[in-house]
Amino acid sequence: MNNKEISQAVVARLPRYYRYLGDLRDEGVERISSQELSKIMHVTASQIRQDFNHFGGFGQQGYGYNTDYLYEEIGKILGLDHPHNMILIGAGHLGSALIGYMNFRRRGYLFKAAFDINEALFNQTISGIPVYPMSDMPDYIKNNNIDIVVITISKQEAVKVVEVLNRCPIKAIWNFAHCELEVREDIQVENVHLSDSLMQLSYQIRQYELRHSREEEDGKKDSTRHPAGKHPHKNEEAG
Amino acid sequence: MNNKEISQAVVARLPRYYRYLGDLRDEGVERISSQELSKIMHVTASQIRQDFNHFGGFGQQGYGYNTDYLYEEIGKILGLDHPHNMILIGAGHLGSALIGYMNFRRRGYLFKAAFDINEALFNQTISGIPVYPMSDMPDYIKNNNIDIVVITISKQEAVKVVEVLNRCPIKAIWNFAHCELEVREDIQVENVHLSDSLMQLSYQIRQYELRHSREEEDGKKDSTRHPAGKHPHKNEEAG
């Protein structure tokens, strides 16, 4: 397997393949062709074959891929063949939502404890997971083989916490704070910037409206082009 | 302004520019050069100039960009020059976290109401936002000029809700359900698939470990290459 030069775009598609293959497996589908997978996932069959070829192709034959095998192999590539111990920093609503999400546990992402500065939460539990004071965190990480730290606190707090985490034996941070983190070179970071995602959505709205008003302008010049009452389709080529 | 052919990668960087420029503005920085911005944001100055050129360049002169102007202009491109009315579907922990997030409100993303199927929540409020029965949703959208619907419910429920939303005059869906949605062509969708993000993180962990164990193998063959006790740097070229 040669995953040295796999682009971020391919990597971003892997979890999606994994989700769809999990559904197919649950439905008892034993084999699937790239054409069938293409239809369900709205990507081209050639894109699917190209993506899979980065990982050796997963042994497609005339009658398609073995669903179980493909699911397991992609799972291995995503690091799902062994469990990951996690802790949460910041036991608010967002953190509680993440702890309560059953699919994480099912895939081996195991929350072991949460940490907060709010004394009222100490020794309470969230979906069965205990909440401890922040000061206990470094020792807890050391003694409990923690891989992934999930951060759901403010930008200001996150900067301070990361200084502590840089001295702890962790492998990765899943960051929901609204800033980039300065981490040790062997700590992997994945950011979830929710406000960025929302801004991309309003960008899309604005772009659609700009395109649409341009099309209406064009429509006035050539009113026979679009049937009345029907919006021109998004992907229709400009005349 | 010609934004017709702007790639997804450029669009994904815009909110990040906006965040950093907002911070600079708050700090009272009036002008900034692409070199200075590059240093803060860890992207190259030429990348920044290229990105900005898609939108007309924002009038950089010898002494850099006007921070206020740049912030306002990128805000307009992101559709932040007017407010967006939003509703939430699914008043659980995740939804409550989103409603409570002050930065959304500050940027004109205004939650007006939440909808749920849990009767115990009806006529309660979350951070001051009322919760109503799901059956009230279509009328509420029609009467309150709702642009964006935020979905924080299960995959199974989301599929049903989207059928209803396809008949409502909305512009966009911010989707946290773990599936792709089949929407009307004029509805924009932005997905936040949290489990995909977590899988990308464990992919990165695994890749780091593979790379690292390969480097250790290489190190055994040529033990003088890396000083003892010091990990080879991530970006160091393989010998």
Task: Describe what this molecule looks like in 3D.
Two copies of one chain form a homodimer. Chain A has 239 residues and is of the alpha/beta class. The first copy, chain A, has helices at residues 8-26, 34-41, 45-53, 67-77, 93-100, 102-106, 137-143, 155-165, 194-221; strands at residues 31-32, 65-66, 84-89, 109-116, 125-126, 129-133, 148-151, 172-175, 188-191. Chain A has a seven-stranded mixed β-sheet with strand order 5-6-4-3-7-8-9. Chain A has a two-stranded antiparallel sheet with strand order 1-2. In chain A, helix 8 links the parallel strand 7 (148-151) and strand 8. In chain A, helix 1 crosses helix 4 (67-77). The two termini of chain A are 46 Å apart. At the A-B interface, helix 1, helix 5, strand 9 and helix 9 of A face helix 1, helix 5, strand 9 and helix 9 of B.
Short synopsis of the structure:
Two copies of one chain form a homodimer. Helix content of chain A is 44%, strand content 15%.
* Number of β-strand runs of chain A: 9
User: How would a crystallographer describe the biggest sheet of chain A?
Assistant: 7 strands, mixed
As residue ranges, the low-confidence spans of chain A are 224-239
Give the mean pLDDT of chain A. Answer: 87
Q: In whole angstroms, how far apart are the ends of chain A?
A: 46 Å
Q: Report the total helices of chain A.
A: 9
Radius of gyration of chain A: 23 Å
**Oligomeric assembly:** homodimer
Strand order of the largest sheet of chain A: 5-6-4-3-7-8-9
Greatest interface and its participating residue counts: A-B, 60 and 60 residues
Shape of chain A: globular
Helix content of chain A: 40-55%
Helix and strand element order of chain A: HEHHEHEHHEEEHEHEEH
What structural class is derived from the secondary structure elements of chain A?
alpha/beta
Classify the beta-strand content of chain A into a percent band: 15-25%
